[in-house]
Structure prediction request, 1652 residues.
Amino acid sequence: MQSGTDSIATIPTGAVTSQSGDGHVEPATGEVLDPAMRASLHRWWRAANYLSVGQIYLLDNPLLREPLAVEHIKPRLLGHWGTTPGLNLLYGHLNRIIGERDQDVLFICGPGHGGPAMVACTWLEGTYTDIYPSIGRDGAGMAALFRQFSFPGGIPSHAAPETPGSIHEGGELGYALSHAYGAALDNPELVVACVIGDGEAETGPLATSWHANKFLDPVGDGAVLPILHLNGWKIANPTLLARIPESELRSLLEGYGYEPIIVAETDPEAVHEPLAAALDAAFDRIAAIWDDARNGAATIRTRPRWPMLVLRTPKGWTGPSVVDDHVVEGTWRSHQVPLSGVRDNPDHLAQLETWLRSYDPDDLFDDDGRPTPETLALAPTGTKRMGATPYANGGLLTVELDRPPVSDHAIAIDAPGAVDAEATRVLGEYLRELVVRNADARNFRVVGPDETESNRLGALYDVTGKQWQAEVEEHDEHLVAQGRVIEMLSEHTCQGLLEGYLLTGRHGLFSCYEAFIHLVDSMVNQHAKWMKVSSELDWRRSVPSLNYLITSHVWRQDHNGFSHQDPGFLDHLVNKTAAVVRVYLPPDANCLLSVMDHCLTSYDKINAVVAGKQMHPVWLDMSDAEAHCERGVGIWDWASNDDGDPDVVLACAGDVPTLEALAAVDLLRTHLPDLRVRVVNVVDLMRLQPDTEHPNGLSDRDFDTVFTRDKPVVFAFHGYPWLIHRLAYRRTNHANLHVRGYKERGTTTTPFDMVMMNDLDRFHLVMDVIDRVPSLGSRAALVRQHMGDRRAEARAWTRAHGEDQPEVRHWRWPGSGSEGGERDES
Amino acid sequence: MQSGTDSIATIPTGAVTSQSGDGHVEPATGEVLDPAMRASLHRWWRAANYLSVGQIYLLDNPLLREPLAVEHIKPRLLGHWGTTPGLNLLYGHLNRIIGERDQDVLFICGPGHGGPAMVACTWLEGTYTDIYPSIGRDGAGMAALFRQFSFPGGIPSHAAPETPGSIHEGGELGYALSHAYGAALDNPELVVACVIGDGEAETGPLATSWHANKFLDPVGDGAVLPILHLNGWKIANPTLLARIPESELRSLLEGYGYEPIIVAETDPEAVHEPLAAALDAAFDRIAAIWDDARNGAATIRTRPRWPMLVLRTPKGWTGPSVVDDHVVEGTWRSHQVPLSGVRDNPDHLAQLETWLRSYDPDDLFDDDGRPTPETLALAPTGTKRMGATPYANGGLLTVELDRPPVSDHAIAIDAPGAVDAEATRVLGEYLRELVVRNADARNFRVVGPDETESNRLGALYDVTGKQWQAEVEEHDEHLVAQGRVIEMLSEHTCQGLLEGYLLTGRHGLFSCYEAFIHLVDSMVNQHAKWMKVSSELDWRRSVPSLNYLITSHVWRQDHNGFSHQDPGFLDHLVNKTAAVVRVYLPPDANCLLSVMDHCLTSYDKINAVVAGKQMHPVWLDMSDAEAHCERGVGIWDWASNDDGDPDVVLACAGDVPTLEALAAVDLLRTHLPDLRVRVVNVVDLMRLQPDTEHPNGLSDRDFDTVFTRDKPVVFAFHGYPWLIHRLAYRRTNHANLHVRGYKERGTTTTPFDMVMMNDLDRFHLVMDVIDRVPSLGSRAALVRQHMGDRRAEARAWTRAHGEDQPEVRHWRWPGSGSEGGERDES
Prediction:
């Protein structure tokens, strides 16, 4: 365990920076670049800028071999120029670094709509053509490159899955830095250069992800170089971080734990020296931190203060300075398309031609439109090219997990419900073994917002710890410099770290409270979209799935109350592409093992697994559990008495609903023994959808076989009841489907009172059955009334005693052979 | 417009702070408190702590008038002690400030599970009993107070709606500071004291909300005093901000723009002096900032550096120091219930009694259990009590909006579709007038993430501006020190500011891109839950609704691509309590005016209004629009030819689907003139639900009248098609309902190509109708084939030209009398 001692360095130690009188760290003025290198950098930048403008504007005449005319211009001018020149500049400068240091660099393009730059640079370096041979690195290819950008059937305006070298889409802003840190974990040779737009920097997820530096291990992990690009404006507003005094900005970034190196320039010719100096300083500093941590003699490690860059340059730099008497370059007016009336306004057309020719395309590209050798002087080769790095196509690097047999961790039972177990604690023991088996591969991580122990996965701490580089005090537990668990009270950062980790080819699990996983709804949207598009691209290799363990779920939040009750993440997820999303509701510990083992072997999916952490009966032994989970839905013969011809189907999905449904069956057997009841349990929720809608969906014939074509179905469901209807509305028997689930009725209560409040309890399920089997007659009416009385008694008991009735708490499935015993309800 | 000049103050100017040698600002050691006041503060703290422990543990024997026994202890020990003593301490000290300065203070309790403290303090000051007379301020009342906490039928463990003086629930963390800033806006006499837990401080929404100080106007707005409470641990982990060097923390907070005053203490007796000194300094500084801004001679205003407190004290302070040989006080072990085995473990029981008696209840409460006059010496009276401040029951302060007649802004039309208009631009003109009419009341705000102009509400800037206190440069537009619009690229902060503003009784609108409003899904959950519970509490007055203008919607994100396409916020919203949520899909500009005018007069709701910003036909004149929106769903006779007996119902909801549905009707009239088509438009989506499920729902009879009991219904819907099924699955005619909507098929495309990709286009709707009216025969088969050809042509056109076919773009409703003209599709 590391020491908590730490010291504040107020200036970077890089050779090219110096402390100026007013507290600013400024790049030195000494020359870093020889003239040839400076010329190469500027040439790269000109070429990339030319290619970017071409993408936004040109349908034809890509090399301007004839005067620019209206017919060469796209009818819809889409795309965003403002952020582009800064990205092109950085890409070129990073090429120099890569070449000089033989350094693997993954480029994260945070700014929204930065696509033109990434496409231009990867086309220049050749990776674009390697991946898309129809887009040649010549004049015809350039024409195709320009045409496809933001064009029907073409490519989007962000660094999307289609973009070589990208693991990050700049559509929804906020996740660049957490993705970068996730990519750097367990990649000790990698530097992730992460460009953060000053718009994105205002988002909450980005604002807290700076703190991810308190987790990064300088020995086992790589490095992240944040580059905060202050171009000053968003769509129509200045950005906050560009409009505070530089000393305040520096204070903020130092407060986040970085050594900022600030480069500010408005002259395009003058930027190369200070930027190169700053990058050299940053990479020197990273190398020094690595060397110190990995080769140093010190036994006590201190948290390094990683370097970062602030690049303050004009928005829409090198673009039109003034348009229609409005200053455009260096203002918000350059955000999108600086010249918007090109097809209707000859002045705009002429100004566009002047702008394009200012980059001197004839000097950049040969007669065939190929970049000249001089233009490509900077470009690295092979997989050192940022567009070709395998880190950005993580499936290339994936090593399958070595999984322990689930049977090693199964709960043995003699009869259904004979034994209780805490499902997540059982899973924790499986995960402990998983960590041990993959310790050398270093390719599995668990993230969560301070809940791994609370969610009873604490067995992990027998073999690993929580990675942590901040200060440590006496009473801390399980904090280590290198560990498989990362906990931060930011679901956004957890999700971003895990996404970055998965997209670079590794495996992981996010353990979280059910109600608060909604915090990452929009991140899940973006990841699902990324996975859908990626799966349609041959060159993108499969990456491990994003696995959620959703626990501390709605039915056990009676004590935390209404604010902690929300099962709607499942509803959110099932709207996403069917090829990507999976939802599992294992009814007991053995089924949780089986389901999670399956999820950890799956690729390209988002798997949501909902399971409680409390003591709960184990219904199926391991082999039955595996068979049941493999089927995803099944009739539980041991709980049914229908002999293939039920009067009613009692279906259930989720651990608590399954318990209540079985308790209802017990009541029905006692009070209405002649009623033929079929018990159906659903583990894989997507089985309810038709197979025409979802790959896991049941055929209508199979659905009808299980749920019947015409018998009443009472369905006890973990989530909002409408979700079942939304999935099953096309089924033959849908009109007979009656669902009980959560309906936002919460207040402070007990576990059983909570299911009663939502009419999901055993007594009410019996009443539901009686109401739907009219042939039952007068005896059933008496039973129904008795159930109402039992409910009233159960509620009164909670109000009097503050806990559930013993007969409710201690209920056991008949024949389970076990003693009724207290269950843990905390 | 203010100047951007600003200066960095590195130390607070309060008299009681000083700069120590190592860069720390520390409270002075001089005496601020006279002995009586110090005693009163300590007595308040002891009393509040006693009452907090009592809530967590005691069922009976509240005053310990007999030895503590097992039967006095709750069976389930719930609640959270760790954060509680710090909150009680601060509440008492703020009472001193209020009394000495006659200052209105709103207390925001950010830390999760801080409920016991808020309940204890408001009971002490008498507001609890004022509101809940059954909980008297005496021994019997204390017993009831203790019993109800986290008890079935009782109150939750957070500062919930049930808690006097609260506008903020600590369930989901992250929003304390944005709520505080929202409450302070336009309340120039108010100081909002906002306690931020160091757990919460790790969340993204909290991390960026510090920057809200760049918007707060020291003239027109009140002040926020952030109090970062570093107690060092979360559930099982240390907190990041407690484990960085203090100089780094100070740098961070100064970088956020504050003057931090740090109070660190571990001795309960010694904390009062430095804390009082720090609070005096902070309130002095606030008063000085106000005075300077409001009464100063300076014409150029500079952004003030507001004070803030850092309170570093032990977690679970004054609780059991060591339990079972584990150190508990000052560690994560005090997070919840420090003594967990009280009913089974006599040592724990004894330790609990010792703990309770350490506060000396006999000295705090009289024989009847009433707090003694000495205990209450600090408590303010009347509405100065923080539990009784009207700011926390905002409906008490609400002034209705003075609204312009919608007819003043209506688009006049001679026939349906005769005129095009940009719906949001028309709304912008209405909002401009609304701002003018309510300028003196200062009770309306528009928030958004940099999109007010992009969403074409720019008319607002004729009469107001964007409030902004950071630096201003030459090319900025509409930035003002006081303005009705606040824009920050953080949907979380926008939402938090607006919630704080609404819950303190004012009105507002959040304008946002549809895809990215998912960022605040979880915040909407919490607000919906707050509103549901509030509406069930008689004493909580109604507050204005939370209104979303959801624009730049899914069907116009063809150019921004897949990442910008997500209509699922509506699905998310409709899972919330029916009494609270409303979803409106106005089909044109006049309907948008009518709907938004209605929303701005509504209370206690969450209204989501989806409307595009592009040029779009106006179908209804203003009086028809008002009648249609009032009904919420209606048959459009002018577009129908069914004479009360349709062959098919063509339903639509949303502006783009309505356009496509009407274009389909035009095609049907041309090609199948004998087919009787009924056109139904849905504005109020909740009309589709049964009236038993939602207050706006149609009765089954009315639904059947509109949609028929047995005719095919083809429904063109704005969002995911399953949402319509989820709302209408119980309806008689559900089996005949066929819905087209968005299905995650996006790529880069044109507007019409995008509707084609999702089979929502006019041609496909015609095909859908033909497929569902089998009696149409062979002519229909030819029409169907023709529609397929038209689609293929339309798609090919986009691929060739990069824009939609002119005949598609220029389509007009027959008889609209207008020329076909180009519509804006950017």
